[in-house]
Amino acid sequence: MKKISILGSTGSIGTQTLNVISSMKEIIKIEGLAAGSNTKLLKQQIKKFKPKVVSVNNALDTIKVKKWCRENGIDVEVYSGEEGIIKLATLSSVNLVVAAVVGAVGLSSTIAAIKAKKDIAIANKETLVTAGDYIMKLASKFGVKILPVDSEHSAILQCCNLGKKSQIKKILLTASGGPFYKYEGDLSKITISQALDHPTWKMGKKITIDSATLMNKGLEAIEASVLFGVSIDKVEVIIHPQSIVHSMVEYMDGSVIAQLSNPDMRLPIQYALTFPKRICSKIKPLNFWEIGKLEFYKPDFNKFPCLNLAYFSAKRGYTMPAVMNAANEVAVTAFLNGNIRFTDIVKIVKKTIFSHKIIKNKSLESVLKADVWSRDYSSNLIKKGIL
Q1: What is the C-alpha to C-alpha distance for residues 1 and 95, in angstroms, rounded to an integer?
Q2: Which CATH superfamily, name and number, covers 2-148?
């Protein structure tokens, strides 16, 4: 039986992971759940899955959840903040940690879990974008598996099982194109609700906005490069509106291996939880007669310049991806708060990365320093209206 902790249990990936586990209780046991501020949903999860340890956002929530547990006769340890998340990531009984915390904040808990020799089912792409080299070397040192939860990277993992890394010619990373791929209007007038209306996937707000700018695909390209140990030049983005082909790998002999399924995050989540085994799922099987056709297009780098910035940052390397990622997080938050326009996101990211002096040191310290600098710099751009 696998015993797991879920970091980010009340978010989109966390709730879907628990949905998958609901039908796998005979082989998976929940040991820990880390939530943010959604204590109402966390209480429901505690009742259903009976974890030993939980973590909440702050000390006040800790008091409230402890009181609720006592009143309902539930025996569970309650922690808060970063200390709480790290506690859950390093529980001695746990052998798999689902890293589903949004943003670069998930970095410290992922590092702690690896050092505690826990396999990682990673849904937090920012961790690998920010400190990918460090994370992969650390995982190798401690004999830890890094298992992708994203549908695209899960697909690549499955395709890579049919060849050797040295035989890979190209990774073909598919993208739905988001809500604005065929949009002909003025992108500067895009509203928050329009940007959050993704045509295929139901996701958290941050990743949905990233999908609308195609920054998400840039982050995923960097993540693929890190996870599978290939140059960023070997990762090519392809627009595929149907989201049936989740990604492909082209080999040196001309063979292209693809992984196909209906767009349902429960499938890659289940594969990460049961890896390397496969078990039956409740996912609707493909009906090729209903699908009819599969389309593929080149991405429009002019219309979606965030994709260009991600590739530029990856090629520059060192601290640049961390700076790019942090600036994007700040900009997306500002857009969701109504403080900037949709098209200002890329302006903030661009100004920030072109103002950054790369630290040519791949240490974790240099990455964290660059992350802090980027957040301060991009926040000041927004505060002063320098766009």
Answers
A1: 10
A2: NAD(P)-binding Rossmann-like Domain (3.40.50.720)
